[in-house]
Amino acid sequence: MSGDLVVVGAGIVGASVAYHAARAGAAVTLVDAGRPGAGVTADSFAWVGASGVRKGPAAGLRATATAEYHRLGAELPGLPVSWSGSLSWTGDGSAPHAGPGQTIVDAATVATLEPNLRQPPEWAVRAPGDGAVDSVGVTERLVAGARAHGARVHVDTPVTAVRRDAEGRIAGVETAAGPLSGTTVVLAAGVATAALGAQLGVRVPVEPSPCPLFGLRAPAGLVRTVVSTEDFDLRQVAADRLIAAADSPERTLAAVRSTFRGAGSVELISTRIGARPMPADGEPIVGPVAGVPGLYLAVMHSAVTLAAAVGRLVARELVDGTVESVLSGCRPDRF
């Protein structure tokens, strides 16, 4: 790999890679078919949490998520992140289980944390370290940070192919506006990564997975934390607005009204269906591609949660030449 990078995709992952690599001294070109964060990044519920992580190839990576966002917030003051904590419960009355960084709280504590609940659950799982981000706002700040460290940014510029030289090494990308040169190309283009890889004979097993996101007009302060139930994941994003990740807008609206006091005036104001990139095994695909010198993949579910950590680690591998052991379970060659 080399420090002359072209990062394809200015969603939150690509923006994070570009920022961290430029900050580390690399010559970075960031290119996207649209505007920064305007794709599936904008459709994310954007819950950031490291608690409860116990197993899986990316468990170590996920366990660093909140700490990495705190680190990023110190580097980019004013980063739009709120650390409200989260509350999760089910409706079957079964005793919950707490993972690392979580505690079991009773109904009285739940009522203190969410005073507008009509009927606080007998038990809930609290993760006080959890938070949420303005995913588009964070992406824009990362792109601005990359620019401040010298990165060149091309928006509204679709990439049509990855270029290789006569010896098969990466030489940059072709775009609708002409070629962009680079000896390393990072594909962080979400579901579009699969098609770009296929042109090189590289199989990237990632498929689009629908992610409905509903915007609700609601009274100020109706919801205080990130609330997760069988009906919805819900949080307040502005004085008069909630967002919910759930399956049905009608059922979600009814559930919010029945769950919270003072929610009778809550109304649906938007519906978005994003196409989040879902790797075949659900785990991130991060690392160099064997057989294509200079090609590196960075595509994953939970992109918003993992972006701060992944951007820093990928930059270290590409710029400093380190091999990050925490990414060992995420490598493309596992497929």
Give a short overview.
By secondary structure, the protein is α+β, with helices and mostly antiparallel strands. It has two domains: 4-77 and 134-205 and 280-334, FAD/NAD(P)-binding domain; 86-128 and 209-276, 2-Layer Sandwich (D-Amino Acid Oxidase, Chain A, domain 2), CATH 3.30.9.10. The chain is built from eight helices and 20 strands.
Notes on the protein architecture:
The chain has helices spanning 12-23, 59-62, 65-75, 107-113, 135-148, 192-198, 249-259, 303-320; strands at 4-8, 27-31, 47-48, 81-82, 86-88, 103-106, 123-127, 131-133, 152-154, 159-164, 170-175, 178-181, 184-187, 206-217, 226-228, 233-238, 241-245, 267-279, 285-288, 295-299. With 335 residues, the chain is α+β, with helices and mostly antiparallel strands. It folds into 2 domains: 4-77 and 134-205 and 280-334, FAD/NAD(P)-binding domain, CATH 3.50.50.60; 86-128 and 209-276, D-Amino Acid Oxidase, Chain A, domain 2, CATH 3.30.9. Strands 6-7-5-15-16-17-14-18 form an 8-stranded mixed beta sheet. Strand 10 (159-164) and strand 11 (170-175) form a beta hairpin. Helix 1 (12-23) runs parallel beside helix 5, helix 1 (12-23) packs parallel to helix 8 and helix 3 packs across helix 8 (303-320).
